[in-house]
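Support reply, case 0932

Customer input (verbatim):
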Amino acid sequence: MSTEKNHKEASVARVLKYTGILGGVQGLYVLLGLVRNKLTSILLGVGGVGLIDMYSRTADLICSSTNLGISFGAIQHIAELNDRGADEEGLPLAPADNPQLVHYIRLVRSWVAYTAMAGFLVALLLAPMWAFILLGSTRHASMVVLLSPLVPVLALSGGEMAVLRGLRRLRTIALITLCGAFTTLLITLPIYYVLGTTGIPPALVASAAVLLVMQWFAAQRIMPYRINLFSWRFLKRGRRMLQLGVGYILTGIVCSGCELLVRSYIVHYGSMAAAGLFAAGLTLTVTYTRLVFTSMDSDYFPRLSATKGDVERQNTAINRQIDVLMLLMVPLLVVFAIFLPIIVPLLYTEDFVEAIPMVYAALFYMFFKAVSSPIAYLSLARSRSRLYFFVEVSYSVAFLLTAVVGFCLWDVVGLGVALSLSNLIYLFVVWTVYGRVFGFRMNGATLHRCLLYFVILATGVGACALGGGSWQSYAVAGTAAIAAMLLSALLLKNEVPMPKRWRKFLRRK
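Our regenerated output:
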């Protein structure tokens, strides 16, 4: 077996390993989310679900506008400093004993504290404006005022997660994610039961605050919490970090702004119920397939960054990641499409059945995302923030335009079409731009697999969407699902010698 093949086997196995480690926790997280969404839809109805989505997106927009991209930009440098720390004998230092790491994390936390205060003031002082954008009236400004503490909580939470991710505390992150989902369930449902839709802002703030406490407690045990807010000589050392974050903050503003505009358009020209259907459809499309992407930040991004401009290694890493995402994603999407008419009433209520056609149209969005995401990480791995900004904005603008046109033509179903079409446009932009700038090329085998998987997915989803629930349509969809599983099993067998791994495992004493 050649060195290249050994490297390939290790890489694919590694991606699957991280997906497995975090996938189990993500599965429990999704299960708790199912229970929460079901009970929330019963307590608040379609309009209430739409209102939760609007408030959450508003907080995300304000946070993205004021956090300077610190929480994302700091992860890579924290990881580098942590790997570099060693004592005189060459042994790795504990994080708290690494002076450079201690200094940098204090710098990150200090700037995060300032951005948290700025976000709170922007949310509080501009509450009437946010209420008008959200609901077309300033009468609901008091609700946005109640929502304003959510912004600094999100900013501080992002800072502590950056510390944990940079220090590669993946098991700790997984545990916090699971506990956070459980506490959110316990906190939000009683508030919704007692206060109804007026309890949405305090419920969002309370659940986010509890999650922040967990993150802070876990992070400060590894690296004690220290900040320095009154020394400009100290703070200005973060200038490079802030410059790197400019592209990310502008990207966050545009992307979150476009998403909020789409939701505002749906409310203004449709109804809050339509916004609720869109929120539920997007949750069904994205959230329950998220475990497939769990290894992207924890394993793939550092591995891609390590290629350091080596085009051959870079393209090998990207193509393998696409292969793994394809073999995991497509069977899941086809099976999901088959059981969607059962899943929606089970997870929500009968009022949300109207979202099913939208989900069918949006499933191709996840397929295109599985191809585009590994390529899109290139600008992040090369710290090209301006390029990252322009490429990411292309998706947001495409989604805004296609969503408006789609909603006018086909109502909520048009929003699903817009998601898929905009991500197809984004894939074309990413492939073209990064091909010229970074020399990305998709190898022939990966391209053929993607095309074959797309045909299988289109056959299965098309049969479910157009078959009217007949047994013939489910027979075609079932055949597509089996074909996808067999193809994935064949690829997995070729890439990772599973029989050898099982024999090795069984022989362990």
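We compared this against your earlier run and they match. Two observations from our side: Residues 1-10 have pLDDT under 50 and may be disordered. Residues 305 and 382 are 7 Å apart (CA to CA). Please reopen the case if you see a mismatch on your end.
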